User: Fold this.
Amino acid sequence: MAYIKNIEHERALTLANQVSVQPGQIVSRTLAQNPYVSVTLFAFAQGEEIGTHDSEGDAMVLVLEGTGLFTVDGRDYQLQAGDTLVMPAKKPHAVHAPQDFKMLLTVVFPTKE
Assistant:
């Protein structure tokens, strides 16, 4: 059983090449999803956005290409390729694409003990 899906195993890859920007869309590719963690690649076309929401887990983004604008609890962060931001659980956040960009999103959920 593979825990990481939708990506080739045992092969060196460039993550940014595993998802493509499509005009007028947000494209996503789920690489892992279980009760503890979610790992998803995203490609945002310029002008697209994910509106304000929150998450049960801590969400960490890594911008792979381009520039993304992230709003966390009312504060804006402009991230470029190579930049990372953690959006804490339960804090409202949003994502906007001032230009085409790609990111890797990792969400770590609380354990239910």
Q: What stands out?
A: The radius of gyration is 14 Å. The longest strand covers residues 58-72.
